[in-house]
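Supplementary Methods, section 5.1.

A reviewer requested that the exact input to the structure prediction be made available. We therefore reproduce it here, unchanged from the version used in the analyses.
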Amino acid sequence: MKALVYGGPGEKSWSEIPDPTVAGPRDAIVRVDAVTICGTDLHILGGDVPEVRPGRVLGHEAVGTVVAVGDGVANLTVGDRVLASCISACGVCRYCREGVYGQCLGGGGWILGHTVDGVQAEYARVPFADLSTYRLPETVSDEAAVLLADILPTSYEVGVLNGGVRPGDTVVVVGAGPIGLAAIQTARLFSPTHVVAVDKAQSRLDAAKRFGADVTVLVDDDPLDAVRSVTDGLGADVAIEAVGLPGSFELCTTLVRAGGRVANIGVHGAPATLHLERLWIRDVTITTGLVDTRTTPKLLDMLVAGQLDTVHMVTHRYALDQIVEAYDVFARPAETGALKVVLTRR
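The structure derived from this sequence is encoded token-by-token as follows.
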């Protein structure tokens, strides 16, 4: 088969590799029908995730069709159409029993495209398949569903829920890329008074407006003044970091009010300064996290009910074998206007 293979920082190729096979009783082999590229994949290519070794197949977000299952798979059959989650769960370790699947001790967690071969390929092996895939109803398209593999649950769990968004809050989202847009959309489920989007690109702020931000501000145009102007000078109740850069995290800590919450979603590859000399006295709570995907079934229900919009986040579409070109477009959003790219089997 063909797959997108990591060759080290800055190196990738659409290469021929052996087909995946069932390696354990709880595995499923999935024919990949739709896949997308994540900002985390760009962090990997930038050398920010050293656990990913050369030769690894990248990707952790896919929709596909089951073509083989191990003897221990109880709830899937060949021919099932499924969402392959970015998080795998053994289901029996302490963390999995607490619903904290991202910290699985039994061989799961974030493994696809990280410590085992991922899904940017024609076929993929999905470990712990019963707990790491979700059957899809016929009414949900591949394109709509694939964004539930990572960015929707990540934004919802690590941003909105960890940040404790409540009705009447002012929420500021720093970074209006796909993760930030998903955070804006899912924050709106809790009826905040204001959602403020901050980014360096006007095209992404325009997208933020479409996804529910009522205030947008360029990062160079004094975001603090914009936030204070809608909060009687207090600052944001919740500041969500959706970039993964030191400057964006530090900006969040300046935009949050006393007693507020900073929820970090971004994948960081460099240290950020934590200004405790200013924050300690202001009762600020800071959360970090890897998604657990425990909310994926609920998000899928909301997608079916029309309460979530994922398709309009897709700006570029490609055939699977055009993935190198798709990476180039996705990596240059200021020039290309890319939000999410979806690649499909044709």
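The chain has two domains: 2-149+292-344, 153-287. These observations are discussed further in the main text.
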